[in-house]
Design brief:
Number of helices: 11
Mean pLDDT: 94
Number of strands: 21
Strand content: 25-35%
Low-confidence stretches: none
CATH topology of the largest domain: D-Amino Acid Oxidase, Chain A, domain 2
CATH class of the largest domain: Alpha Beta
Shape: globular
Largest sheet: 11 strands, mixed
CATH architecture of the largest domain: 2-Layer Sandwich
């Protein structure tokens, strides 16, 4: 019988959250194995809008406007869609999400997430520098754009809440916005430009850069199935294509697949999924920054493949068949705002955002098992929070004083 390979830490899941943690641990001298069933970075992490946000303090709440809820009930809005067959499964989680989306609940989440958001850009810059990937982080930020003055005024009124967290933004007229985004339609009356965030035109490249740097420091990427994890006499063990891997510590960074493993270990995770789709359209002129069309509910972002259109949320079972009905409405809306041509791919990409009712991630010690650690449930902000989450969990795994209190991110908050 071959001897099991030993490491200091196993990291289960090779998305951006797992890749950032792998590099974080390797930089501190820890030996680690990154276990991924498929290919690193090509799951949920692949399909984002390329935003590393410096202003993402306020969570995406469940709407409370009765007219808006009625429109959602009839699937009349492009930014949200639900699968009728999935409702029996998703309604309990959506009810918890609704309850957590009160004004007080949103501010509680904002305060809880603030240390992670505040460190998001600087921690990505630190990891990117270590990975030789500084050039992937583009300055210039992104903007929310509006066709109607009422919508713009409502958004401006929210800036006071963000100012509590030190967020600054440029409020732009339509002409000022068009000066920064040549080609933008005259129907746009104005927008809000957040200048502090950085963006990516190839999010997968950043994940891969982190992994390459991790490997250069002695880390290993190994194909294996996290569901085979078990606790043995020598530590945490997982079977892989190269045999059994053993480590003292194990970090679960499985995103939307975390509940599958944790249920086997006795943990209840109230996760639900906001599925999202994207396609790329060929632009007639370069798009200079990502834009959120607030009134329709999608992002157009300049990517290596073209302008990526990312949909809002589809509420469905994680593994239900794709229903990309949101794609055509957002394509029409985007083409009305910016000169976009043909679609670059035949089939839209789909992924599942792993959400928890209070829109906070789970980061920290498992509680019921020694040396088991969690970092998942980052909802809309997996890319944004990956590096600061890695910093926090790395400090906890190494037994160092954490840069922020991990208590707000404990799974135990759900009982």
């Amino acid at each position: 019988m071959s001897q099991a390979r030993r490491f200091d830490c196993l990291i289960l899941g090779g998305g951006i959250v797992g890749a950032a943690l792998a590099l974080e641990l390797a930089l501190s001298g820890r030996s680690a194995a990154l276990i991924e069933k498929h290919r690193v970075g090509e799951g949920t992490s692949f399909g984002n809008a390329g935003l590393i946000q410096a202003e993402a303090y306020l969570p995406y709440p469940f709407p409370r406007d009765p007219l808006l809820l009625l429109a959602y009930a009839f699937n009349r809005r492009a930014e949200a869609h639900y699968q009728l067959s999935s409702l029996p499964e998703v309604i309990p989680a959506l009810w918890r999400y609704f309850r957590a989306s009160s004004a007080a609940g949103q501010m509680e989440t904002a305060r809880a997430n603030a240390p992670l958001v505040r460190a998001a850009v600087s921690d990505h810059r630190r990891l990117a520098a270590a990975a030789g990937a500084d050039h992937l982080l583009r300055p210039g930020g992104w903007a929310r754009i509006f066709r109607h003055e009422a919508g713009l005024s409502a958004e401006i009124s929210k800036l006071g809440e963000l100012a509590l967290f030190g967020v600054e933004a440029d409020v732009l007229s339509g002409d000022e916005l068009r000066a920064r985004v040549p080609g933008l339609s005259d129907t746009v009356v104005g927008g809000i430009h957040y200048t502090a965030p950085v963006t990516l035109n190839d999010p997968l490249a950043l994940t891969q850069a982190y992994v390459r740097a991790f490997e250069a420091l002695g880390g290993m990427v190994i194909q294996g199935d996290a569901l085979g994890l078990r606790q043995g006499s020598g530590g945490w063990e997982v079977p892989t294509d190269v045999g059994v891997i053993v480590a003292r510590d194990c970090a679960v960074t499985l995103g939307p697949w975390a509940p599958d493993l944790l249920a086997k270990l006795g943990y209840s995770v109230p996760m639900f999924y906001k599925r999202g789709y994207h396609v790329h359209l060929k632009p007639d002129v370069p798009l200079t920054m990502p834009l959120l069309d607030v009134e329709v509910g999608y992002v157009m972002a300049p990517m290596r493949q073209g302008v990526r259109l990312t949909t809002g949320a589809e509420f469905a079972r994680r593994d239900a068949p794709p229903t990309p009905v949101q794609i055509e409405p957002i394509k029409r809306a985007a083409r009305a705002l910016f000169p976009l041509g043909e679609q670059a791919e035949v089939t839209p990409w789909m992924g599942a955002r792993p959400c928890l009712p209070d829109m906070r991630p789970v980061i920290g010690a498992a509680g019921q098992h020694k040396n088991l650690w969690f970092s998942f449930g980052h909802a809309h902000h997996g890319l944004t929070l990956a590096a600061s989450s890695a910093r926090l969990l790395g400090e906890l795994i190494r037994g160092e004083a954490p840069f922020c209190d991990p208590a707000p991110y404990s799974l135990s908050r759900f009982g």
